[in-house]
UniProtKB/TrEMBL annotation:
It comes from the Bacteria. This is Histidine triad protein. CDD domains: HINT_subgroup. A motif (Histidine triad motif) lies at residues 102-106. The lineage of its organism: Bacteria, Bacillati, Actinomycetota, Actinomycetes, Propionibacteriales. InterPro entries: HINT (IPR039384), Histidine_triad_HIT (IPR001310), HIT-like (IPR011146), HIT-like_sf (IPR036265). The gene is hit. Gene3D superfamilies: HIT-like (3.30.428.10). It holds the Pfam family HIT. Residues 11-117 form the HIT domain. GO terms for molecular function: catalytic activity. PANTHER family: ADENOSINE 5'-MONOPHOSPHORAMIDASE HNT1, HIT FAMILY PROTEIN 1. The active site is at 104 (tele-amp-histidine intermediate). GO terms for biological process: nucleotide metabolic process.
């Protein structure tokens, strides 16, 4: 494992350990889910395994162990944010666009005012703490 992919240097491992603050909305024995600070859409959430695994194609496999959280958090986002749909994706490897080498699944609530795949990815401005707190409060209340 190269230094860029080691658990010691992994931003998600640091979030899981509480060394870096996050807008956590769900946690169980296997996973942690938190708001993306540069969301594509309101409520954009990352679901990550607690143990360090590079991607969904790396060994040992970890995608199945976070599936219950993906299901639970998807339903939470739809219910609490009033989303009209949901996209789910994960990238494996640099050529696929993976930037953080710790398995993570993006859950993107979708709204009727920006439908379809062409509106999935746009500019990713960093969300303000006020914006993240508003979404976090809706999800955790």
């Amino acid at each position: 494992m190269s230094p860029s992919t080691s658990s010691e240097n992994c931003i998600f491992c640091k979030i899981i350990a509480g060394e870096i603050p996050s807008w956590r909305i769900d946690e169980d024995d296997q996973s942690v889910s938190f708001l993306d600070v540069a969301p594509f859409h309101r409520g954009h959430t990352l679901v990550v395994p607690k143990r360090h695994v590079e991607s969904f194609i790396a060994d040992p496999p970890a995608l199945a162990e976070i599936t219950p959280a993906i299901d639970r958090v998807s339903r939470l986002l739809i219910t609490k944010l009033g989303a009209d749909g949901m996209n789910m994706f994960s990238s494996a490897g640099p050529v696929a666009g993976q930037e953080v080498f710790h398995l993570h699944v993006h859950l993107l609530p979708r709204y009727a005012d920006t439908p379809g795949l062409r509106n999935l990815f746009g500019p990713k401005p960093v969300a303000t703490d006020d914006e993240l707190e508003t979404v976090w409060r809706r999800l955790t209340s």
